[in-house]
Write a structure and sequence with these properties.
Layout (H helix, E strand, L loop, with lengths): L4 E6 L2 E6 L10 H15 L6 E6 L4 E3 L5 H8 L3 H19 L5 E5 L2 E3 L1 H4 L6 E4 L4 E3 L13 H7 L4 H8 L5 H7 L4 E2 L5 H11 L4 H5 L7 H4 L1 H7 L5 H10 L3 H10 L4 H13 L6 H18 L2 H10 L16 H8 L3
Parallel strand pairs: 2-3, 3-5, 4-6, 5-7, 6-8, 7-9
Antiparallel strand pairs: 1-2
Helix pairs in contact: 1-3, 2-16, 3-15, 5-6, 5-14, 6-14
Length: 336
């Protein structure tokens, strides 16, 4: 397992480096637990003045959680494995969100799902020209989780609903606009910046190297998406998109109609319940109500089968978009 992740102190920095580039740095359960234990150890270690998390490879910081074990456990009706996995992962997300020292994440390439959970709750979130950040969980019968629902709920112009339902990837400028990232630094400068951080323990270095990220397409199209997602009713959103001949609407419709109706319906309800005063714990609680039940009562197993196991990309969801019973969503919403 330790070959998958490198945890060490270099200079004044606690360093976390994901080392599974061949798997797009997908995070295993063991990696999750190792990061949590190390962050707790470094919390009060005077030698560690800040945390730096990065990853090997050019294609991805972290493409999400390695969910193959979850699928196997679910097939054996062992739903407690998933409950424990998500409980431990969400505890790590909360730890990062409330960490008392600067937590600096360098996110190249794909940062999705579980990757968002170990980076975008940090105090300093760095993106570059290759960054692609997304919460695509609805495509596999899950919901935006790892605290991502809190970030989505805070995105301006109803963009959180658009991003959560479609799983659309954000580039650096989009991620900064929506609140998933803070600063743009060209990838070619990262090694130098990290070295300076290790030597000084001073995160003001990030400001010195930050550059303009360019125009955000989401910002330029914000009025369009704000109007569409004013409705918090999935069938009405789909109806609105279906009547539009705008290319942006057609692209959103194409993504939504492929995703899990139960997951999308719950996502809308979850985001609408989160307010500007909500904390990371509030978001994780709403997420866990769904994910802890997703294998037994949702469509998560089918979503994984279609996307990762058989790779036929043709999931057989339990309901059509306009047929999701309110009772099912209410059952998922029940406190545990």
């Amino acid at each position: 397992m330790m070959s998958d992740i490198n945890l060490r102190i270099q200079g004044k920095a606690g360093r976390i480096t994901l080392q599974r580039p061949e798997a797009l740095n997908a995070m295993t359960y063991e990696m999750c637990l190792a990061i949590e234990k190390t962050l707790i150890d470094w919390k009060y270690d005077p030698k560690v003045e800040l945390i730096i998390i990065d990853a090997q490879g050019e294609r991805a910081f972290c493409s999400g959680g390695d969910i193959s074990d979850l699928y196997e456990a679910g097939n054996k009706k062992n739903y407690n494995y998933g409950k424990k996995f998500w409980d431990d992962e969400y505890r790590l997300n909360a730890l990062i969100a409330k960490y008392p020292k600067p937590y600096i994440a360098f996110m190249q390439g794909f940062t999705m799902g579980g990757g968002v959970g170990i980076s975008c709750h940090g105090s300093h979130r760095i993106v570059c020209e290759t960054s692609k950040i997304a919460m695509p969980e609805c495509s596999i019968g899950l919901i935006p989780d790892v605290g991502g629902s809190l970030l989505l709920s805070r995105a301006p112009n109803n963009l959180g609903y658009f991003l959560g339902l479609t799983g659309t990837q954000m580039n650096a400028a989009d991620a900064i606009y929506t609140g998933f990232a803070d600063s743009y630094i060209p990838k070619s400068e990262w090694s130098e910046v990290i070295k300076k951080l290790e030597q000084s323990g001073n995160n003001s270095i990030l400001r010195e190297h930050s550059q303009n990220s360019g125009k955000s397409q989401l910002a330029e199209n914000r009025e369009f998406f704000e109007a569409i997602f004013t409705s918090k009713d999935l069938p009405k959103i789909v109806q609105f998109l279906s009547k539009s001949e705008d290319q942006r609407a057609l692209e959103a419709l194409n993504k939504i109609t492929k995703n899990c109706p139960i997951a999308m319906t719950y996502t809308i309800e979850m985001l609408s319940r989160l307010t500007p005063k909500s904390k990371i714990e509030d978001a994780l609680d709403l997420e866990y109500r769904f994910t802890s039940r997703a294998q037994e009562h949702g469509s998560f197993q089918e979503g994984i089968r279609a996307a990762i196991i058989d790779k036929d990309r043709k999931p057989k969801w339990r309901f059509e978009i306009d047929e999701v019973p309110k009772e099912i969503i209410n059952n998922f919403l029940k406190p545990l």
